[in-house]
């Protein structure tokens, strides 16, 4: 429905996009303290980069090989199975705006829609 409304307004389809976020939890926590989470994100707008955000701490931008590093760090960070969130959809150009409309899924189950305007 949103796609049709944008096209009626004169928006031009400009391809597809995707964003994903994988959650990792630290394995070596001290007794009594909750495990910290690390979020690793990928974006089709920046295909050669990975972004990571440590819960309560700094964020970083790395090259796409960051995923290989996470495999090597599996003794320190475990992938939280079933917690991968992704949004996939269509990009539109409307006047000076870039509008992205996508479906948000978690573990391949649709959870909602996303709308981004730049």
Automatic annotation (TrEMBL):
Molecular function via GO: transcription coactivator activity
GO cellular component terms, semicolon-separated: mediator complex
One Pfam family recorded for the sequence: Med20
Keyword Disulfide bond: no
Family annotation (InterPro entries): Mediator_Med20
Keyword Transcription regulation included in the entry's annotation: yes
Localization terms from the record: Nucleus
Record-level GO BP terms: regulation of transcription by RNA polymerase II
Main location: nucleus
Protein purpose: Component of the Mediator complex, a coactivator involved in the regulated transcription of nearly all RNA polymerase II-dependent genes. Mediator functions as a bridge to convey information from gene-specific regulatory proteins to the basal RNA polymerase II transcription machinery. Mediator is recruited to promoters by direct interactions with regulatory proteins and serves as a scaffold for the assembly of a functional preinitiation complex with RNA polymerase II and the general transcription factors.
Similarity annotation: Belongs to the Mediator complex subunit 20 family.
Protein's recorded name: Mediator of RNA polymerase II transcription subunit 20
Native source organism of the sequence: Sinocyclocheilus grahami
Gene: med20
